[in-house]
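FIELD: query
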Amino acid sequence: MPSKPVLQYTPLAQIAPQDNQKAITDAVLADLGRPAFETIVAELEPTKGEINEAISHLNGWAKPRKVKTSFAWYFAKATVASVPKGCALIIGTWNYPIALLFGPVIGAIAAGCAAILKPAEQNTTLAALWAALVPKYLDQSAYILINGAVEETTALLKLRFDHIFYTGSGTVGRIVAKAAAEHLTPVTLELGGKSPACICDDADVTIAGRRIMWGKYNNSGQICISPDYVCCTREMQPKLIESFKAAIAEFSPSGTLTENAEFSSLINPAHFARISKLIDGTEGRVVIGGGRDEASNKIEITVVADVKESDVLMQGEIFGPVLPILTFESKRAMVDFINARDNPLALYVFTKSTADRDYFFKNTRSGSFVQNDVLVQFLIPGLPFGGAGPSGYGGYHGKHSFDTFSHERSSAAIPNWLEMVLAARYPPYNQSKLKQMLLLTGQKISR
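FIELD: result
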């Protein structure tokens, strides 16, 4: 294990936000067509914040803590120490290839773990940059980066690790979990799913439209917590569509999104073809967008109204710039629809009413819940980020990252002089010894 994990943070900061910012943003632009603004705001600055938080609080996180216990064990020096799990495998993904790789790495370093870093192979330019930077800045006896695709990842998963952290699709997540089970290795799975945005009739439609469109504009909707579909009443739908149109016009005043250099491309032609097939196959009404440019792998933000439950757009996570709208008679019907499906990674509710907000919160399950905005839960320091059920399990960010890669090791030190009290536990047993033990440790259930 690395003996002084905090010393790794300054080099890690140099890899990401400080010394190499231009090289990194250029690499992301080459791979994703994503503007530097989005990369800095959504990845580099949050990563820098994670590093600063770990440096500031590591001593407190790692300090062994005494446990409040019963009077009978007052002198046992009951203590819990956070110790490194060991060697971790951290598998990143392509859509946010900085924060989703180095966020977990920060937790592993803080906990004192060694780690193998496996970036996504789809980011060819950035993966080559990581291969040059990681050996330059991080201790190679503890932190190794391995590039490659399915073959290399499969080989890694055959090895025994002390923790595996995977970000990506549910399909691959099941493969990772199955491989980890062969060694009884604990796993954190950060997956995805269809994250709904529910718009109540009292919502500020202008704000809802701008913020939801921002969630689809960022990285061209290729975000695991991007709003995947909208739930609203039939009366709200036309107002919302007009708000969406106004937001897109505000975001791209100079022309169509496919011609906008600040609007990200889809990751590759296969993804472009998949999203195009969804648009072509929907039975809903395309009310916004639909334009495409195959040469640049760009598809406009496409809003589809009057979508039915059985529509092709509702059969899986879209993970792109397409937003179906489904209409419901009531918030109860929206909740029933959400609960009939896998737990989403995120649930967004737009309402001015605390009562309506609480209704959605108390009657649904999701990895995270946000009122009147989207995506921001990933950026707010102190909040754990993670899924629930099919959208993943385990969480990270801040101390939660440290805890993910730590084992809480309990300890006790029993003084020898307690033998005169504890001697009653030894056989041969009798009623007198039982009474002595019950006097020491007996419990009554509180009513």
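FIELD: remark
The CA atoms of residues 135 and 265 lie 30 Å apart.
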